[in-house]
């Protein structure tokens, strides 16, 4: 499912799994934050939820015509949901938010302002949760994961796990795709020769439901992923070209 690239200035892609208690309010906040700021669409990608997430979204569509709903036919994970949302999106630029409601849609206009003030070769504006609203164990695990990743990849990004991001659609779709790639987008963008910037954003407590990640599972997957991304960076090769 391919979108009509650049027919809109902005698409907001929200991946979700079992977030019926959080997603409707998040979608409403997103529409409120962007109306009058830019033309946009909201693309929610449901990863086979079993709690009525899709029905809750469908109930919003009459009042939010900007809302589009995609649903995976099999569980595929967050990275695949983001990528499928971007593929279907019609925006030249993509903003992402996690479906749990902890990211604040009011930060999207701030990211747009940062983009407008930046050089054209900055293709990613990554949210930086300066004040995390998570459990102590989750904050501790993220702190160490970010430190190890920064040491290994030198991506100069303090918070790659933040779901609030703004990036150019074409630049994102040129990146190598793999499961869990959403945690390495800054390093992959830099591998392709683009600049990235980190922007402080708001972070909120989860209002409903439970996290879909556990620290051990994330760590085990992260070790393999980190080695793979480091290999991709080492093997990258770029050269300037000219048309004759």
TrEMBL record:
Task: Specify the species.
Answer: Luteimonas vadosa
**Where does the record place the Glycosyltransferase 2-like domain?**
11-171
Bilayer-spanning residue ranges: none
Identify the Pfam families for this entry.
Answer: Glycos_transf_2
Sorted alphabetically, which CDD domains does this protein's record hold? DPM_DPG-synthase_like
UniProt entry keywords in alphabetical sequence: Cell membrane, Glycosyltransferase, Lipopolysaccharide biosynthesis, Membrane, Transferase, Transmembrane, Transmembrane helix
The stretch of residues making up the signal peptide is none
- The name under which this protein is listed is Glycosyltransferase family 2 protein
The record's SUPFAM superfamilies line, in alphabetical order, gives:
Nucleotide-diphospho-sugar transferases
The record ties this protein, via InterPro entries, to: Glyco_trans_2-like (IPR001173), Glycosyltransferase_2 (IPR050256), Nucleotide-diphossugar_trans (IPR029044)
């Amino acid at each position: 499912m391919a979108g009509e690239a650049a027919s809109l200035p902005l698409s907001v892609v929200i991946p979700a799994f079992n977030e019926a208690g959080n997603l409707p309010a998040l979608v409403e906040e997103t529409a409120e934050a962007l109306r009058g700021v830019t033309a946009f669409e909201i693309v929610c990608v449901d990863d086979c939820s079993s709690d009525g997430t899709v029905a809750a979204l469908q109930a919003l569509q009459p009042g939010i015509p900007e809302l589009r709903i995609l649903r995976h036919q099999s569980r595929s994970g967050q990275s695949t949901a983001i990528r499928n949302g971007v593929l279907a999106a019609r925006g030249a630029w993509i903003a992402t938010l996690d479906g749990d409601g902890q990211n604040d849609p009011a930060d999207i206009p701030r990211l747009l302002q940062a983009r407008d003030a930046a050089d054209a070769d900055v293709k990613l504006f990554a949210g930086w949760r300066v004040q995390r609203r998570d459990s102590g164990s989750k904050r501790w695990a993220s702190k160490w994961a970010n430190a190890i990743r920064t040491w290994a990849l030198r991506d100069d990004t303090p918070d790659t796990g933040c779901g609030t991001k703004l990036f150019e659609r074409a630049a994102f779709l040129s990146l190598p795709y793999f499961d869990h790639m959403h945690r390495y987008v800054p390093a992959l963008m830099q591998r392709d020769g683009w600049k990235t910037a980190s922007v402080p954003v708001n972070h909120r407590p989860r209002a409903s439901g439970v996290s879909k990640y556990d620290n051990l599972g994330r760590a085990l997957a992260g070790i393999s992923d980190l080695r793979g991304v480091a290999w991709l960076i080492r093997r990258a090769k770029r050269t300037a070209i000219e048309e004759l």
